[in-house]
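Tutorial, part two.
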Amino acid sequence: MQIKANGIQIEVEDTGAPGDGKPVVLLIMGLGMQLIAWPPALVRAFAQAGYRVIRFDNRDIGLSQWFDEQGRPNMAWLMLKKHLGFQLKPGYTLADMAQDAVGVLDALEVSKAHVIGASMGGMIAQRVAIAAPDRVQSLVSIMSSSGARGLPGANPEILKAILGRPRSKDQAQIEAYFLRVLPMLSGKVHKADVELLRAGVRLGLQRSEHQVGTLRQMVAIGADTDRHLQLSHIATPTLVLHGRDDPLVPLACGQDTADRIHGAALHVIDGWGHDLAPTALPLVTEALLAHVQAHTPAGQTA
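Running the prediction step on this input gives:
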């Protein structure tokens, strides 16, 4: 369904309803990914445990409002500027995207939620906890980063593959691109299932295809240079979940995030990369449920 949040149109899927009394889990997906990228099994697990699960498309992707008036970023030039130490000027920021998430809670009449974000979504979730701590019951940052300078970056081969996305609108070419890149994100043990990936890619392309929005989100990530300095302000119970084999956002990035948030717990899954591979999903789900349930008071309502 479409709602107005933070002044823009946001596409939302909600397993509950205002006033149903269930504690709320808000799921925030990563760079260029739609809300359907959250595995149905994960959503079901929370719903079966008694939670109202809210997912949404981030701005500029999926069925949420696009920002095409901002134009197509020149990524080569912007990457050079960032390498040389210049501050990027995005059309919107991760702080703006965090306010979108808070706006979703407002529109759905949710006072507090367990906020869970993956990859870029983890960065947005951190921003929510910084800006609106009274709205966050607990925080989970999955395969994400503090954004601090000096942390290790992505495997160069993977970064090159990601940036090699075709500009063509041909669905077969785009599908081939995703099926080439996404398996590269897997860990040594927990591998992607290619047929599940294929089905997911096709579903996503049928629902929406908006590459330029992904590029603008990348600029917002690159411009978010001071978040690490604010993580010490977070007093919300926090879990940092990371794969030991993450080739896109190395484990050191998760470790740094946990180190900067007082009392945060770091949970590392061996053999896991930067995806929600089927064999890793039960381990991820178990860790998420344990954290959320530990910080859901008995008798709490949304």
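The longest helix spans residues 94-107. In part three we will examine how such features are distributed along the chain.
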